[in-house]
Design brief:
- This protein is mainly alpha-helical.
- It is 65% helix and 5% strand.
- It has seven helices and two strands.
- The chain has a two-stranded antiparallel ribbon with strand order 1-2.
- α2 (22-40) packs antiparallel against α6 (109-128) and α2 packs parallel to α7 (149-172).
- The radius of gyration is 16 Å and the shape is globular.
């Protein structure tokens, strides 16, 4: 089994074990922006806009960064709604949405990464301020029913892992 696959499998086992630990989730979510920035450091614009292959064929590296930034805005809205009202309706955030190249072609990587870092820091501070009971506060998702703050944090952690592995695959290719 290739080294990258073993590391991915180990990370997935850790997710299942740590997915209920708010301290782990806060730390992991806080570190994702730096990991993304490090993985994309020094790449030329041509590399950032080159389409992926295989499972990544509809993606570019810049597109992954744009997707993470845009998803984070939706997550902030979900968390704020859940923490400000009792069982509010929360909007769906499409974490599988692949941005269209024409929608982000002119964006600069550093600005996208700065925005993602800023939004993620907002999410992380929100999570750090929670009392233990706040992690079970919930909202009603239009397709998935009741979701808690813990569910959202766990989903974002998994989402980060998937895209960080995707970036690694694409850079290595």
């Amino acid at each position: 089994m290739p080294l990258a696959r073993r590391a991915y499998n180990r990370a997935m086992r850790e997710l299942r074990q740590a997915g209920s630990d708010p301290a782990f989730l806060r730390k992991a979510l806080s570190e994702a922006g730096g990991e993304l920035r490090q993985a994309l450091a020094g790449l030329r614009r041509r590399q950032l806009l080159s389409p992926g292959t295989g499972p990544d064929e509809d993606w570019t590296l810049l597109g992954v960064a744009v997707h993470l930034r845009d998803t984070e805005l939706g997550v902030i809205a979900q968390l704020e709604a859940m923490l400000s009202a009792r069982e509010p309706a929360i909007r769906a955030v499409d974490i599988d949405d692949i941005p269209l190249l024409e929608d982000y072609r002119e964006e600069e990587l550093e600005e996208v990464l700065d925005d993602f870092h800023y939004y993620r820091r907002h999410t992380a501070y929100t999570l750090w301020d929670l009392n233990p009971g706040d992690w079970e506060r919930g909202g009603i998702h239009p397709y998935r029913g009741r979701m808690t703050v813990l569910d959202i944090a766990r989903e974002m952690y998994r989402h980060d892992l998937e895209h960080l592995w995707q970036v690694r695959r694409m850079v290595d290719a």
